[in-house]
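Subject: design request, 218 residues
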């Protein structure tokens, strides 16, 4: 009972608002209709054209622009954890179209290097996806490791990204992924080199197939 009072009080003090234009909305995490339609674009990523040869399929939910870009940057670089709820809300709106999230998948987040995770205090991918995975009653398995630090990718072209990430990942428990259908999750897909490298080590560890889902793509 008191929990309801507390949550009513919090709503009164901090009414749910669209994270972009700050208009009042009904529930925390929600976007207003115009800001949502500005970014929403559930689509398949063509893994053949993108040369993501370790992936069997990939989907993304939004354009990496406007509100989504702002929220991701704040979540990643300014410690604004609550924006994970708004990004997760976008996934919840798209979930009927997400064929990559079959009921038997093992969901694996793309990891940060431990040093970066320590600086940030959390992995934003986990913050965004893990509660959704629980809601959907999927299996979550944090089984990828970054075994060496890598340079930030922004200024690198595709070839440089490839060598930057070569052998950067490892699977901590191959027994957990062997024979499984994996769903790799990440916040953003740019060239796909990161996700493809992760898929490579998972396949080599015995995963049957690897799919990918990201919140946004350029
Ligand atoms: Zn809005």
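Subject: RE: design request

Done. Sequence follows.
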């Amino acid at each position: 009972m008191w929990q309801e009072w507390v949550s009513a009080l919090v709503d009164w003090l901090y009414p749910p608002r669209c994270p972009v234009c700050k208009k009042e909305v009904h529930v925390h995490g929600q976007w207003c209709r115009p800001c949502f339609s500005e970014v929403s674009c559930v689509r398949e990523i063509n893994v053949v054209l993108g040369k993501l040869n370790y992936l069997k399929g990939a989907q993304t939910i939004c354009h990496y622009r406007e509100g989504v870009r702002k929220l991701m940057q704040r979540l990643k670089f300014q410690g604004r954890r609550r924006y994970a709820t708004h990004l997760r809300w976008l996934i919840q709106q798209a979930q009927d179209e997400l064929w990559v999230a079959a009921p038997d998948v093992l969901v694996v987040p793309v990891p940060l290097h431990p040093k970066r995770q320590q600086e940030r205090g959390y992995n934003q991918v986990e913050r965004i996806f893990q509660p959704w995975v629980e809601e959907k009653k999927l299996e979550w398995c944090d089984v990828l490791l970054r075994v060496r630090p890598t340079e930030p990718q922004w200024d690198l072209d595709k070839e440089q990204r490839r060598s930057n990430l070569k052998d950067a990942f490892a699977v901590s428990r191959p027994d957990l992924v062997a024979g499984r259908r994996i769903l790799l999750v990440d916040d953003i897909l740019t060239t796909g080199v990161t996700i493809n490298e992760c898929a490579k080590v998972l396949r080599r560890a015995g995963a049957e197939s690897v799919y990918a889902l990201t919140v946004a793509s350029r």
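The chain has one domain: 40-217.
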